[in-house]
Specification:
Number of strands: 9
Strand content: 15-25%
Oligomer: single chain
Shape: globular
Largest sheet: 4 strands, parallel
Order of helices and strands: HEEEHEEHHEEEHEHH
Radius of gyration: 16 Å
Distance between the termini: 43 Å
Amino acid sequence: MGKTGALEVKENNIGVWLTPGVCIHRNPLCGRNFEYFSEDPYLAAELSTSFIKAVQKSNIGVSVKHFAANSQENRRMSSNSVVDERTLREIYYPAFESAVKEGKAWTVMCSYNQLNGEWAGQSKYVITDLLRGTLGFKGLVMSDWNSIYDWQKVIESGQNLDMPGEDAFYIKKKPADLV
């Protein structure tokens, strides 16, 4: 599946495929469960890592998503996933850890949701401490579409790229205004 998909992506002159979704199925009403690998952390890790290796073998990057603790689509831009450290490590992180360490994923996409009261995509704890520190990710970290709320926090978090970019915020602000 990864190899075939990578060929199609390459034919369309795309360098990074915004997949795989490795979020854990925690809510049966999540409208994107069909694109996530599993409700089992071990199985999600194994499937996603094999998929990533097959895609990136074709010199197409992947963007593993949605980090971290994203488990619902309903009100995803306002939800708060309250999760203790043990649950994060045992349920939510294994697929991301395997994607980073074994699959060598090129990019990771942050989630819309808050994690324990802080927006995941602009959290220094989530991006710098967990993703880059604990999981050892060295690649590019991007936002999910239009999920930036506080530029100062984004800069401090270690996130690299806001997607889709070039909205009215950028037109009105100069880089010096962002720091």
